[in-house]
Design brief:
Length: about 300
């Protein structure tokens, strides 16, 4: 009776696995703030992606961890055709052509200031940042990315990226927009993973106020009009009402990012014996589906896909 009356379902196809990249071969650097996660060299990232693909996970989402000597105020490494990101995209599409490759588009991994946009006189300059983001997206598309995911929260970047992609002949590359992204402390562990914490100030001039819900409609309308293909809400569980709101406002697919802090809370509580990680992960993911998410980005994607496969 319980199975018959069930309202929401979770399948591996709903999941996207974020991967942190590093230079080298056969290299795996564990991330202390995110137990079970590591920065991987491209060869090991391909192996993990292969397992995810075989289990039915839809996509990987790539983040490069770069050394300080390639970072500068304008993030010029982000468009290097031989950059870590571009090499990883090419390797994944060569080895696993059927696995979707999604790439994070923002300046923070490449910026000596650690911000998602260009910092000029202590302020984030929205409009100076737009062509840089657009060039980054084109560079990812050139390397073979299927989906570019701008996470920077600059105004007008979806249109700038869409026009640049189309002009470069990449009309088939999709834009997954971080449409509703809050200025959240739940990103804490991620900034250690990428060593990308802002050098000064915070991200509150471009990320949203956690107190706001009315603003969501404005963000959705803008990104739809600018040509987004998928809209993301971030973080996940504390913002379930926001996911529901976006689901009701748009007919586009809705994605959610179950972020680093949400993942690490479960892992660390489980390590101390206070929570059952697997059950709490599956419950969290189901709640995100129930709230209205079609797609879930989660560091638990492999764990969840393995559990779903074992249930069959
Ligand atoms: C930055 C970016 C962040 C995340 C994804 N892209 C961090 C931030 O905005 O500071 C967070 C992901 C996570 O916490 O898991 N472009």
């Amino acid at each position: 009776m319980r199975a018959m009356a069930r309202e929401s379902f979770l399948t591996p196809a709903n999941l996207v696995l974020p991967l942190f990249l590093r230079e080298g071969r056969g290299e795996r650097t564990p991330i202390a703030s995110m137990p079970g996660q590591a920065r991987l060299s491209v060869d090991l990232a391909v192996e993990l992606a292969r397992e995810a693909h075989e289990l039915g996970v839809s996509a990987v989402d790539l983040f490069p961890a770069l050394s300080d000597d390639v970072k500068d105020p304008r993030g010029s490494e982000s468009t290097n055709p031989e950059g870590l990101m571009q090499r990883a995209i090419r390797a994944l599409k060569r080895e696993l052509p059927e696995l979707m490759v999604c790439t994070d588009v923002a300046l923070d991994p490449y910026s000596s200031d650690g911000h998602d946009g260009v910092v000029i006189d202590g302020r984030i300059d929205n409009d100076v940042t737009l062509p840089i983001l657009a060039a980054m997206a084109v560079s990812h598309a050139e390397a073979g990315a299927d989906v570019v995911a701008p996470s920077d929260m600059m105004d007008g970047r979806v249109r700038a990226i869409r026009e640049a992609l189309d002009d470069a002949g990449h009309t088939q590359v999709s834009i997954l927009s971080y449409c509703v992204k809050y200025a959240s402390a739940f990103y804490g562990p991620f900034r250690e993973a990428l060593d990308s914490a802002p050098k000064s100030g915070d991200k509150k001039t471009y990320q949203m106020d956690p107190a706001n819900l009315r603003e969501v409609e404005r963000e959705v309308r803008l990104d739809e009009a600018e040509g987004a293909d998928i809209l993301m809400v971030k973080p996940g569980l504390p913002y379930a009402d926001v996911i529901r709101r976006v689901r009701e406002l748009t007919t586009l697919p809705v994605a959610v990012y179950h972020v680093s802090g949400e993942y690490s809370m479960l892992k660390v509580a489980a390590e101390r014996g206070f929570l059952d990680y697997e059950r709490c992960l599956m419950e969290s993911l189901m709640c995100l589906r129930r709230a209205g998410a079609d797609v879930i980005f989660t560091y638990g994607a492999l764990d969840a896909a393995r559990l779903l496969a074992a249930r069959k």
